[in-house]
Amino acid sequence: MEKGKSMVAELAASFRDIEVTPRQKPASSSMSAASFYSPTNKSRPRKLVSLCLGILGQNLEDIITDISEFATFFPPDIKLAIVSIARRRRLLNDEVLISLADSSWDILDISASDVTDVGLATVANISNNLRAVDISRCERITTAAVSEIICHCPSLEILRCGGCPRSESTARRCVNLLKPKLNTLEEDSWEELDTVDIGGGAESLRWLVWPKIDENSKEIISMECPRITVNPQPSPFDLRGSKVPTEALASVPLDHSVIVDIDPKTWAVSAAPRRPAIPAHPNAPPEIPIAEKFRLAYVERELRLAPKRAKRERQQRRRAEREYLMNDINAKSVALAAQVSKHLRKS
Fold first, then answer.
1. pLDDT tens sequence across 49-85
2. Does residue 286 belong to any structural domain of this protein?
3. Do 254 and 346 belong together in one domain?
4. By residue range, what is the domain housing residue 38?
5. What is the pTM of this model?
6. Start-end of H helices in the chain
């Protein structure tokens, strides 16, 4: 099984050799949710990296327990795509999220997952450049984790929350965290204030997606946090001059741009937990894990190519010998002397 794990690690490393187009941010807010689901996008052939991710995602249950051993081989975009697939297959928890966390991430969607405060706080320390986070329908997330995100992610602009009773309660408790506040400072001079933060709270937050926000929370945010727009809607007319980003639209999943090119069949079985397969016959051998299949395929390929490689090596050796004899004077003399001695011996 250890060899099987090494094969999966080689597969992960092979992603670096595939050219991946960087995920681009939407250029304007006029792009609506319908544009993401345009039928013209489905007619295009999928990229090689998307096909590989689809196969990896369909067998994610077989490698999810050992993902921490080869997660470092994956590029940041591939890690984020695996997190999105794991979330849809109901496999995302603290261990998986922490194993795949990367400092270059700018979005994080853990909605409806089993991630707890420990996992989210750890990722907030690693990925401190997050600008959009979705914690909706997370029953194990409390205000402690939200406070960690606000503290360690100064670029946070979009926050999604609510969706279930526990998440709604957490969102109501987090309203006070979003308010701007002045920190208590005890500096001796005005010059020393230039190097410290005099304010706190979610200063960069601009968009709050909370579909079932209560009237009291909505009034508090509108009165004390006028910079925050609650449940923004796409509109071609924007009097304030700031267009609504796609990540702030509740109709579009936050991580849709990450898995837009992956076959949806990859997570089609996410609603039901995976059960061990029952053999058709009592004496039938168990199903071979996906990692072992990769190893066996690699061994079979090596055995098939071994004769061709040996033949190629013999041809290269004979060619090198001929070139040596043709170009080196001493070698020609030795060869002629050998032929003469052989001729004299026969005579």
1. 888 888 888 888 888 888 888 888 889 999 999 999 9
2. no
3. no
4. 2-185+194-267
5. 0.66
6. 2-14, 33-36, 39-42, 48-58, 60-63, 67-70, 76-88, 94-100, 117-126, 143-152, 165-173, 175-178, 215-224, 256-259, 290-327, 329-346
